[in-house]
Design goal:
By secondary structure, the protein is α+β, with helices and mostly antiparallel strands. The chain is built from two helices and nine strands.
């Protein structure tokens, strides 16, 4: 990992089936945290999965098919986006994060009154609202969101 990232990764997830390692780090710039993926079978290409220009705190689902990114920068209030990872089975390293749902904090924060929920389609609206309600009730930790996403993903298959 030292060849990939100059700093110790914050979190690491290993998908043994596809031989991919997902990790958070500051590879591109020390000012931004991102989610990356690399093959441990053929190390070399490191793919950034999150948008540049923001600092991200991420959590990857147990099935490695989704991730949650809580991100912001100096001009953007904190947002939480849920992405579905899609890509070719022939080359699993070239995944594309596909927008699934978004929850944006209002200037007053979650407790200050509301936020905005957006989804990629109407079928995920109910799931997104459930996630939003649980986030408001609990302490909005990424671990909680990750558990919810894994459970919801299992019920929608």
């Amino acid at each position: 990992m030292r060849d990939v990232d100059h700093n110790t990764p914050q979190q690491i997830w290993v998908n043994e089936a596809t031989k991919l390692v997902y990790f958070q780090g500051t590879r591109d710039t020390p000012l931004e945290h991102h989610l990356y993926v690399v093959s441990y079978e053929a190390p070399g290409d490191v793919v950034r999965l999150t948008k540049p220009g923001f600092s991200h705190s991420c959590s990857v689902s147990q099935n490695f098919d989704m991730f949650v990114s809580h991100y912001s920068n100096v001009s953007t209030p904190p947002c939480v986006h849920v992405y579905k990872l899609t890509g070719s089975e022939g080359n699993p390293l070239h995944m594309v994060p596909e927008f699934w749902a978004s929850m944006m904090e209002s200037p007053g924060g979650w407790r200050g009154g509301g936020g905005t929920i957006t989804t990629s389609d109407t079928t995920t609206s109910t799931i997104t609202i459930m996630i939003f309600i649980i986030m408001v009730i609990t302490t909005t930790t990424l671990n909680t969101i990750n558990i919810i996403i894994n459970q919801l993903a299992e019920t929608t298959r």
